[in-house]
Structure formats: C-alpha cells, structure tokens
Design brief:
Blueprint lengths: L1 H14 L5 H10 L11 H15 L1 H14 L3 H20 L9 H18 L16 H37 L1 H15 L5 H10 L3 E3 L5 E3 L1 H7 L12 H17 L6 H18 L3 H8 L3 H20 L12 H6 L10 H22 L20 H11 L6 E6 L3 E6 L7 H6 L4 E6 L2 E5 L4 H13 L4 E4 L5 E5 L6 H4 L5 E7 L3 E3 L4 E6 L5 E5 L5 E5 L12 E3 L6 E2 L4 E5 L1 H7 L5 E5 L5 E6 L4 E2 L7 E5 L10
Length: about 625
C-alpha cells in the first residue's frame, strides 16, 4: 500500500507541468483566426510561435514540474532538474551521429532524479570549511554530475530507445479499438486512487512517434495531435462524450431522485458539478457522489466509458485536448480534429443512456446518493471555507499529524503520521465526497474544486499562533443552532454560547478533554473545565431537572478527568422524551468572554464522538493579535 501512496504522489507531480498546456492550445487556436483581414497579419505567426515553443520545451517543463511536485516546490530541486536537462540536451546533441531530441520521458526521469536527490541530500553535511555547498546546495551539483554520466550512456542507447517507442506505438495501434477500450476502462478505474495520471501520461506523452514538416520527432498522443498528426487523438477524443454528456447526465439523475425537500439544495450543488464536468472535464465531484455507495455502478460506468472510446475510435474520430477534455477544449481544438463534430451526437446518445441507467439503478437498488434518505452529505459551502478549515484540520488529526499537505484539482493529498486519527464521518459532514487511504499515511480527501482553497486556509490556520479548542459531538443525532432550542434561556444565549443536539441514542460522551467540575444531583447536566479554562455545560433535554434523576445514570463524578469520547451519562431516551419538554441537548461555553471566534460544522447528522463539530479560538491573554 505504501507503493500506491508513492505512486499517487508521483501522479500529482505529473499534473503540475500540464497546467501550461491550455495556454499553448489557446495560442494555436487563435493563430487560425483571419488576422490578415484585420490588418494584423504578423499576429498569426506570433501566436503560432508561442504555442509551438511550449510544446518544444515540454520535456524541460516536465523535468522542473516533476521535481517541484515531488519535493513540495523546493527551488533547489527545480534548479537541479533544469540544469540536468540543459546538460543532457548539450551532450546528446553534440556527440551523437543521429540527432537525439529530449523527450517528456527524459524530462520526467531527470525530474524524478532531482526530486529524490533533494529528499536524500537536503540535510547533507560537509566539513565546515565547505559546508556552503552542503544541504540543498549540494543537490544541483550532484544531479549535474549524475546527468553527465547518464547523458554519455544515452548517446549510445537513445536511438534504440526512440525506435522502441515508435514500435511500441505501432504495437498499440495494432490493438485497435479493444486497446482503446482497455485504456478507457483502466483510466476510469484508477480515478478512484488518483493514479489515472500515470496511465494517461504514458499514452499522452510517450506512445507513438510523428515527424513534423520541420524534421522534429514528437512522441505521445497529445503532442502528436497538436503537431498535426492526423492519426493522433485516439486516446483523447473518446473522453469527450463521457465528460461533456455522461457525467452531467448522472448529476441530473441524482437531482431527479433526490427527496423533494432536499431537491433545491441538491440541484444547486449538482448543477454546479455538472457544469464543471461539461465545461472543464473535471469529473470527480460527480463520480465521488456514487463511487463509494455503489462501487459496482462505478465499474459499469468505467466499462461504458471504455466502450464509448472504442466506438469513437472505430468511427475514425480523432480529437484531442490540452488539459481535461471539457467543452472549452472541445471548441478550442476542434480545428485540429478529424470528424470531431460527430462527438456531439454520440455524446447526446451517451447522456441519454447514462440518465436512464442511473435513474433506474438508484431507484431499483435504493442507492444512497446525495439527497436521498440515507444519502451522503454534500454541501454548498464555498463562502464558509475559512471557518471550516480549522474543523477539517481537527478531523485529519490536527497539526502534529500532518507531514505533507498538497492539493490537486479535486482532492487534498495528505501524508499523515497516523492515518488512524482520521475522523471520516467528520470529514464527510464537512463536505468531503470521499476519503481514500492509500497506505503509508498517504490519504486523499475529495472536496471537489474547492480543494486548493481549503488547503490555503488550512495553511493559514497552521501558521497562526492561536490557541484553539476543538469540540467533538457529545451524542449521536442531529446538530442544531441554539436558536432552535425550545427554551428561551438557552436560545437567547443567557447561559452561554455554543450549539445543541437532538439525540438519537441515550448516551452522552465528553466533547473535550477536561475536568468534571459539576454534576447536577439529577444527573441531567454536567459541567467540564478544559485545560484552557473554558467551562462547558452539557444539558440533556429541556425541563429535565423536574425528573429528579429518574432515567439518568452517571458514569463520572466531580473531579474526574475526562477525554473526548468518554462516556459521561446514559439516559432512558423514550422516558425522557415523554416526560420532558424536549430532548434538545445544548452544549454551551458558559464563560464565552474567553472566546475570540467561533466555527461550526454544518447543522446536520453527527455520530457520537465525531470530531470537528465546533472550534473556538481563545482571546489572547496579553491582548493584540490579528483577528481571524
């Protein structure tokens, strides 16, 4: 499993240099406009050159991008990779009988070398009088010497490797439609683990060769497509019907099968996810809505995606994209495609098939997609990110549990000291569509297209020197605002500030670490003082003091030390419900003057002991400080 974690980190690193490719595609598309008729004839040449140069230096971009991606943007690693590429290009270009051109594969290999050299030598110590060249400064030197040796070897074997890559492309072509189907199926399955970039990189940037009119040889489906190879695009074109039509159709099916009372909220969330898939090709927000609750349905989806790619290949359709295959890419690159317009009617048919299939499957097998009775909890909370970031931080085990934290398009990619500290229920309650453990502490948390914003807010939270107190859920049930408590003393916040719960089970556990400072004689209320001095009151039900302790059993005494999740009180829920005004159970801080700011999780269902339902920042004792 640790291998999978390392592979997903490598896959994320491969995505970094691809960010520049949409710019290249836009330049090449704009170059086809009639600039001469507008009196700006040179503009077409300028734009063509701008697009061409980005593809020409693609190996260099991958070398630097992979090195930065592996090391978390370490400048020394990026510099080492760039130096290595210059050395490789100079040596292989000067001393080879045949012209050896740097490829993306070479860039990736040098980037990996630079990245892992940085991880090995970033704390390397030399004698004091030459320590200036130790640590990160040693990395460019080491990689430069290593690249010289590598380049000398490549002078002899590179021509054979280039011939092998061309023959590999021919072999893949011989597999025909079945090969394209297999690629599409495996690609979609690997989305689950975030490893789809690995298989796509091989086909998009390595397999197959094409010689341009200028004599340059380009490798891979994507560069060949933009270089004008009419046979390129087999491994990209078939993805358009899935991203532009199939996934939006699934989103529409989920909306239609949602409960009527939840439909407005689900509609807002999934129309946005559908548009993201249609316009940009980002599919995970829709796919993760059913991936975990119906994995067999995801396998069918992967097979259908492969079949669609087979059909488009058999019909001679060739289309490509610079990034992810949405409508933007479809229109920008349509002028380079072969029969690209046929993808629209194919996509419409695909969308209809998906819509009918998913509506039937959701209803027939009672799949708990978002908006149904037991549906997974997704929420529209973009404006709430700064307040939820501290709660997400707690749900992944806190600051000390994070070794590395990065984000790609749709997910946080974490390296944790102990992934058992994850509270998956809390993360789902905070908006995560799914949580994937990859072993070795590597974890992915899917938050959709807000993932990068979440990471930024979490980094800010980590950098602030603030005292936070995190609260877990004291009961299993539904969290509600204090305003909804049917008691004016609590609703008006006279007792204190906090939240309340509607219990579903007769157990109350401690929401924080602290000391029991008060246990009411009737055992319906308990007070806890945290190490930071916060005084927390848990009050089980409304007007339950009138029951004089009947139906309540306490498991702690005043003076006891308690930990989050420790059992405090059991109560006869049916009896208390019938004999009291309400089961509403407030959890309030009775000395709120000590609190500087408050953060709350969504008011929805929670599990007993679930982390991250509330977070507070304490006032600084010496005053001052930046307000969050």
């Amino acid at each position: 499993m640790k291998l999978i974690g390392n592979l997903q980190q490598f896959g994320r690193a491969l995505m970094l240099p691809m960010i520049i490719l949409p710019a290249a595609a836009v330049f090449l598309s704009l170059a086809t406009l009639p600039w001469g008729a507008w009196g700006m004839a040179p503009m077409a040449g300028h734009l063509q050159k701008a697009g061409d140069i980005l593809f020409y230096v693609l190996p260099f971009l991958f070398a630097v991008g992979v090195a930065l991606g592996i090391t978390g943007n370490a400048g020394a690693a990026g510099m080492a990779a760039l130096a290595g590429m210059f050395i490789y290009t100079a040596i292989t270009g000067s001393f080879s009988a045949l012209e050896i051109q740097p490829t993306v594969l070479i860039g990736v290999l040098i980037g990996i070398t630079a990245g892992y050299s940085y991880e090995q030598f970033k704390e390397f110590k030399l004698p004091e009088y030459i320590q200036f060249f130790g640590g990160p400064r040693f990395v460019p030197l080491f990689v430069s010497f290593l690249t010289v040796a590598f380049s000398i070897i490549m002078v002899e074997i590179a021509p054979s490797i280039q011939d092998g890559m061309a023959k590999l492309g021919d072999a893949v072509s011989m597999a025909g439609g079945f090969g394209v189907f297999l690629y599409g199926f495996i690609y979609r399955i690997l989305v689950v683990f975030g490893l789809h970039h690995l298989v796509s990189h091989a086909f998009w940037f390595q397999v197959g060769a094409y010689e341009t009119a200028g004599g340059t040889i380009v490798y891979g489906d994507l560069p060949r497509f933009f270089a004008g190879d009419p046979t390129a695009g087999a491994f990209m074109g078939g993805m358009y019907p899935t991203t532009m039509f199939a996934l939006p159709a699934i989103a529409l099916a989920i909306i239609q099968e949602a409960r009527e009372d939840l439909k407005p909220k689900i509609r807002k969330t999934f129309l946005s996810a559908a548009m993201a898939s249609f316009l940009t090709g980002v599919t995970e927000p829709v796919e993760f809505a059913f991936m975990f609750v119906a994995p067999y349905l995801f396998v069918i989806h992967a097979a259908l995606s492969g079949i669609v790619m087979w059909v488009t290949y058999a019909m001679g359709i060739r289309h490509g994209f610079s990034f992810s295959g949405g409508a933007f890419d479809f229109l920008i690159n349509l002028h380079l495609s072969t029969k690209g317009w046929l993808l629209i009617p194919i996509g419409i048919v695909t969308g209809i098939v998906y819509y009918v299939l998913f509506r039937w499957a959701i209803r027939r097998f009672r799949i708990p997609t978002p908006g149904r009775e037991e549906g997974s909890q997704l929420d529209d909370w973009a404006g709430d990110i700064p307040y939820r970031a501290p709660l997400i931080l707690q749900a992944i085990g806190g600051k000390d549990n994070i070794i590395q934290m990065e984000a790609c398009i749709t997910r946080l990619r974490l390296k944790l000291a102990n992934d058992k500290l994850l509270d998956i229920n809390a993360l789902r309650g905070l908006g995560a569509a799914g949580v994937i453990r990859l072993g070795g502490g590597n974890v992915q948390v899917v938050f959709g297209t807000f993932s990068e914003l979440i990471r930024e807010e979490m980094v800010k939270a980590l950098k602030r020197d603030l005292t936070r107190v995190q609260f877990s859920s004291p009961v299993q049930g539904r969290m509600i605002p204090l305003d909804e408590v049917p008691d004016q003393i609590f609703a008006a916040r006279i007792v204190g500030q906090g939240v309340a719960f509607m219990p579903e089970r007769g157990e109350v556990v401690s929401p924080v670490k602290g000391e029991v400072i008060h246990l009411h004689a009737s055992r319906h209320a308990i007070g806890i003082r945290t190490p930071e001095g916060l005084e927390v009151l848990l009050h089980i039900g409304i007007d339950t003091s009138l029951l004089k302790g009947e139906g309540f059993t306490a498991y702690v005494r005043e003076g006891d030390q308690v930990a989050p999740g420790q059992l405090l009180v059991r109560f006869d829920m049916m009896y208390v419900k019938s004999a009291s005004a309400s089961l509403a159970t407030p959890m309030v801080i009775t000395n709120p003057e000590k609190v500087r700011s408050w953060s709350y999780a969504p008011f929805k269902g929670v599990k007993k002991g679930q982390a991250s339902v509330m977070s507070v920042v304490l006032e600084e004792r010496n005053g001052g400080g930046e307000k969050p």
